[in-house]
Amino acid sequence: MNQRTLESSSGSRRFPDQPPVRDWASLERRDCVEVWSAGSFRYIAYVDDLAADGQLIWVIENGTGSRRLFVRDDPVTLYLI
């Protein structure tokens, strides 16, 4: 994973080297992603399921196993790792 070094115990990170995923439909089940919101790293997750048009995506947070649903208009940014 690029730029994986933790900067503090709070889990903050530097932005990844690669561009964010613009087309969620390009992701596949089991892809590993970094989830960012409001310019801050939130967690690493795995794609669990997604709509064919890329408007909805389910991810499972690494470590906690929490399953979360995002709608394309939600204020999150995904980076493929």
UniProtKB/TrEMBL annotation:
Biased composition (Polar residues): 1-12
Region (Disordered): 1-21
Superkingdom classification of source: Bacteria
Name by which UniProt lists this protein: Uncharacterized protein
